[in-house]
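Researcher: Sit down with what I've pasted below and flag anything odd:
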Amino acid sequence: MQTETERIQRSYAKRSGEGFAKRYSFLSPAVYMSVQERERALLRWIRDCGVAPLASRRLIEIGCGSGQNLLDLLRFGFQPESGVDLENFRPLPVRSLFSSGDIVVGTVKTLEVKYGIEYLIRAFRLLKDMLPATPLKLLIVGGGSQRARLESLARELGVWADTRFTGHVGHDEVPQYFNMLDIAVMPSIYDSESFGVSAIEASACCKPVVVCDVGGLPEVVEDGVTGLVVESRNEVAIATAIGRLVAEPGLRSKMGQAGRERVGKLYEWNANVEQMLSIYDEVAGSVPVGMPA
C-alpha cells in the first residue's frame, strides 16, 4: 500500500531538478532572508488554505527555524506531525501487562529530560499516598538516555513494584500500549514540544489526557473537555489531576470519547495530508521563479 509520504514524493517528483530548485530558491538557506522574512513569505500562501493553525505553524517552523531545507521537504515528502491515523490509533482489545482491576496511569515518550517523566514518577508516589487502597500502576513506554536515572528514582520513591518500564517499542506497537492505559500523562517541561503528537494519539484511543502547560500541549488538549492542563514541573498538580480522573470513571470515559471526536475533526491524518498537499500546490503555483511573492 502506498504511504502518504510516498504520495507526496510522487506528487512532487515532476518538480525535481534545476527548475524546482529555482522556483523555491528564496526558501533555500543559501539565499539570505531573515527568519521573519521567510515566515512572511510562507504565510502568504498558508493563510488562505484553510489548514489547521498547528499544521501551519509546524510547516513554518520546519521551513524557517530548523535548518532543514524546505526544498528537501517539498521534493522528498513530509510526514506532518499534525495528524494521526484513526484506523491505527483507536480503542483496541489488548493483552495488558496488568490485571483487569488495576488503574493504569502512564506515558509513551522518549525518556529524555525535556519530557518531564521524573515529575510523573514523583506524582505517582503522591497519588499512591492519596489513594492507598486503589490498585494503581504506572506504565512508562519508551527508551532514552534517562531510563537508568528514572528507574533509580522509581526505586528510591518506593514505587518500583507498581511501575513497568518497557524500553523502546516500535511505532506500530504504540496503539497497543495506549490501550493499556486508563489515563495518559504528558508532563513535558520545555516549550520545545511544539506539537503534542502523543497526546493526540492517546486521545484517538479514547484516553483522557493530563498535560502540562508548555509548547503545543495546551492547544491539542481542551482543558476540562478532553483532558486536564496543569502547571509544568509541579508533581502536586499532576497528581491532583490524575487523582480526579481516578476517582471519576465516568469523567474518564466522557473525556476519552470527546478526545477522539476532537482528533477526528482537527487532526485526522488523511485530511491533514490533503491540507499539506494543498499548501504545496498553492506554493508551487504562485511563486515567481527565484523570488518571493
